[in-house]
Amino acid sequence: MWLCGAFSSTMASRLVPKVNSKQGGSPCKEKHVVLLSPVGKIEISGCETGLHEIKLPKMSMLPSGAESSVACEVCEGAEEMTEPLQQCTAWLRAYFCEPATTGTLPVPAFHHPLLQRDSFTRQVLWTLLNDVKFGEAVSYKQLADLAGNSRAARAVGGAMRSNPIPIIIPCHRVIRSSGDTGSYGGGHLLKEWLLSHEKLQKEKLAP
Fold it and tell me: How far apart, in whole angstroms, are the C-alpha atoms of residue 181 and residue 153?
């Protein structure tokens, strides 16, 4: 169960998504949906206010051939999707199948305690969401610089591990300064697949 909290209007004004709150700390009615994607089943939770969490599948092998072109479709929970869940599944479908259209779709509101507290972790995640685009990659140190603290590369790593909304908040685009992909909540293979997917799609879209 999630409790609603306050959010800084100053920070909110520069963000694409919203971090919604309700007065009085009323409890959320959490809903769940499962999206079948080219990388497996993605579990998404949220309420009428916003997304709570995206849980990625653990990949034991990279998808190939027919598997990698699987159409994204909701396989569980379609009958009770809230607006944020509808927006999330639409955005993820576009990410996997028609990435050129993601920029035309609304980013769903977020409703997770980590994204409501004023902290360096939240600042890092907002910076990543707003400044590191599809097909790009940054090092932990570069993201620390972008977030306003060049000596906080280790804290950036902690923020990536804490990210409750992966893919939409693209922690897979943060790699080591050496060029190694580094760790990822969904596993090394999934991180490699996402980076390769974006590189290939970006090349297709290039004039």
Answer: 15
Amino acid at 85: L
| Cα 125 from Cα 64, distance rounded (Å) | 31
Q: What element of type H or E holds 120?
A: helix 120-131
Average pLDDT over residues 175-195: 91
CA-based angle 76:17:124, to the nearest 5? 105
User: HSE on the CB side for 109, CA within 13 Å?
Assistant: 17
Distance CA 51, CA 46 (A): 4
Find, among 106, 111, 64, the residue nearest to 88 by Cα.
106
Q: How far apart are CA 128 and CA 172, in angstroms?
A: 10
For residue 105, give both structure tokens.
Answer: 């779709």
pLDDT in tens, 24-52: 456 789 999 999 999 999 999 999 999 99
Structure tokens at 50: 């916003």
CB within 8 Å of 127: residues ≥ 6 apart = 143, 146, 147
The residue behind tokens 């943060």 is: 174
Give the single-character DSSP code of 119.
S
Q: Pick the closest to residue 26 from 111, 118, 117 (CA basis).
A: 111
pTM for the structure as a whole: 0.84
Residues annotated as part of the active site:
171
Q: 110 and 51 in contact (C-beta within 8 Å)?
A: yes
- Residue 146: Cβ within 10 Å count: 18
